[in-house]
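A protein record in our archive is deliberately plain, so that people and models can read it alike. The record that follows is passed on verbatim for readers who wish to inspect the format.
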Amino acid sequence: MKATIYTTVALIAFAANSLFCRMALADDYIDAWSFTIVRLVSAAGCLGIIMILHASHLQRQVRKMNDTSNGTLLVLSDKGSWLSSFTLVIYALCFSIAYVELDTGTGALILFSAVQLTMIGWGIYKKEQLSVLQWTAFIVAVAGFIYLMLPSAAIPSPLAAILMTISGIAWGIYSIRGKTCVSPLRATGFNFIRSLIAVPILLLVSLYYLDNMGLATVNLNNVTTKGILLAGASGAIASGIGYSIWYTAMPLLKHTQAAIVQLCVPILAAILGVVFLSEQLSLPFVVASTVILGAVLTFTLSKKTSKISS
C-alpha cells in the first residue's frame, strides 16, 4: 500500500512538472536555460530549509533517547552523491532545451522510450524475471503509449532528439540510484544543492557557446514574473518534494515496475491540462489511456518480479 501511495503521488508530481514546463516554455514566459536554473535553485532552497528542520528534529530525538543505534545517525549521514547530482542536471537541462524544439508527442515518445530502455535494461541486467503476463502487459502498455503519442509526433531535428534521449537516460539512471538511498529527503536535497555548482557553468555555456549551434540560450529580456513563478513551482514542489517522494517509492519497486508506471505520466499531465488549462480530451485519448492504465495495473498486480538465482 505504501508503494502505491508514494508512487501515485510522485507520478502526479511528474505530471505537474510537465504542466509547469509546458505553461512556461510553450507560451514564452521564460527561456529554457533560465527555467532550468530557477528550477534547480528553487528546489535546492526549498529542500535545504526542510532538511534543516528535519535534521534538527532528528538530532533532538537522538539526544532525548540517548540512543544512536536506531538508524537516526545513518539517516543523517545520507548526503546523496555527485553522480546523482550530475544526472539530475543533465536530465533537467536537456529536457528543457529539447522540449522547446520538439512537438509534445515526439518529445514524450523519445523521452519515455529512453527511460524504459534504461530502467528495464538495468532490471534485466540485475536478473529481474518477468512473467509472461507481465511481458504481455508491458507490450500492451507501450503500444497504447505509442498510439496515444504518435498522432502529434513529427520528424524531430537530430540534435533535439539526441538531447531528449540523453535526458531520458539520465532520468533513468537518477531513478535507479534512488533504490540505495537511506533518506530520500536528504539524498534529493543534497543532490539539488550540489547541482547549484552547475548554474554558473550553464550561464557561461549558454551565453558564449550555444548561440552559434542554433539552440535556445539565456534571454533575460524574455524572463517574466510568471515564468519565474512557474519555474519556481516546478523546482520547489514538483521536483524537490516530488523527487523526494519518488526516491521513497523506488526501494519499494522493482526497476521494471518503476519503469512501466511512468508511462502514466503523460495521461496524468493531460488530465491536469483539462483541469487547469481547460484543454479537451479526445476519444482516442480516452481509449489509449484506458489501455495503458489497465496494462500498468495488470503488470503491477500480477506475480511479483523476482531475481533469477545465480
Remarks:
- The longest helix spans residues 32-65.
- Confidence is low (pLDDT under 50) at residues 305-310.
- The first strand starts at residue 128 and ends at 129.
- Strands lie at 128-129, 306-307.
